[in-house]
Amino acid sequence: MAKYFxxxxxxxxxxxxxxxxxxxxxxxxxxxxxxxxxxxxxxxVLGLGRCRALSESGWDATGxxxxxxxxxxxxxxxxxxxxxxxxxxxxxxxxSSVSSPAEYFxxxxxxxxx
Length: 114
What we know:
Layout: E1 4-12, H1 14-17, H2 21-40, E2 44-50, E3 61-67, H3 70-83, H4 85-88, E4 89-97, H5 101-108
Antiparallel strand pairs: 1-3, 1-4, 2-3
């Protein structure tokens, strides 16, 4: 079964800053529970971290996941949408299949689109 990498990059929206500390704390607790549920199902969080934005409109944080299948990537996206994540954070995601360097470079020689 193929594994997938998911790279999430996000920044807070004004709606996040408008929340009280108590509201933010409750939301963070819910997000942590959601994350734990996916780990229990076989997802691996390889890391989460604040990143240095190179411009004022740059990105604030990045998360790296290893997912056991493409269905779980979709399931996570739907779960964070239900949580309300996208209301509070502007986010872009990149998903790729996991391959060795040799497999990846070999794929560059194939006549196919990514």
